[in-house]
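Kindly draft a polypeptide, keeping tokens residue-aligned:

***
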Amino acid sequence: MATIEEQILQIEEEIRNTPYNKKSQHHIGRLKAKLAHLREEVEKRRSKKGAGPSYAVKKSGNATVALVGFPSVGKSTLLNRLTNAKSEVGAYDFTTLDVVPGLLEHRGAKIQILDLPGLIRDASKGRGRGKEILSVVRSADLIVLMIDVFETNLNVLLEELYSAGIRLNSRPPDVQITKRTRGGIEVNSTVRLTKIDEELVRDILREFGIANAVVVIREDIDEERLIDALAKNRHYAKAIVVINKIDLVGASYLEEIKRRFKDWQIVPISAEKNLNIDQVKDRIFDALDLVRVYLKPQGKEADMDEPLVIRKGTDVGGVCDLLHREFRRKFRYAQVWGRSAKFPGQIVGLDHILEDGDILTIILRRQ
């Protein structure tokens, strides 16, 4: 009987050799679902046995950013420009053999930057310690894809990240799956499904071992998105593209590259010449959706030098939780000055969403 690894190879080959069309969609969809389920099984077994050598990185700061790219694209030089880290720089492949962390302090935020060893083809299958590298990438809040101005093909990096279950600049599928003990698989959708039919939905669920469930689909998904909804190892992160060594090309060449990457947020830089490094800092801060809130003790001036950095969408209750575990229980009301307030000093409750630059006073019960 074939091992799980052998089954995976067989399915991958069958998918590659099967032309995708309307007639083959169901068959390929089932194969993709089976492949995803088998890969999850491999990960489970590996975690039970112990992962072996790994990169241990302690997260710090308000967010974590991973520098991802091929060997020798300038990640270490960029890290040194952005932070106080000292990552070894050399004009040969695989200079960085470990994860080197640094701390970027920008616009009041402290952002951890990780310089990773270069990613290569088949990294998602373990080549070049790829699985260890990708496990670190999966912990990041933002991925900076760094490429050389002369090697602007992102496809290999994107394919390896996708194979590792990392989804860039997208959100989890709007699909709810509720298992039940009997009744088969009931499929309900709030939108018209044009890329997948109910029969394929049921087949994909069965490949994941689900025979009875209620499925509610709220977006026009395809089979890949449905598999993502079922898989337990997906990581969703924002990504930007940094193109290095622009000092070596002319303006017309650079404009052509910008047109080619019109669907991406790109920052053209020269890490060696220290060009546009501040733009990278700003783009990282903005992409992370960080918000600065200035705390004002009752009857005193606000501390405008040390903001509290939170994620976009955080409410007053979330700030209470960050400050002290008792603040939410003792909360009376809060006052807000700034963009989120209808008028200066507006009295708000725990569910008030804060915006960048707000000044906040929290009033607690005396007990």
Summary: The chain has three domains: 4-50+173-230, 63-170+234-287, 291-364. Residues 4-50+173-230 form one domain. The first helix runs from residue 4 to 17. The mean pLDDT is 90.
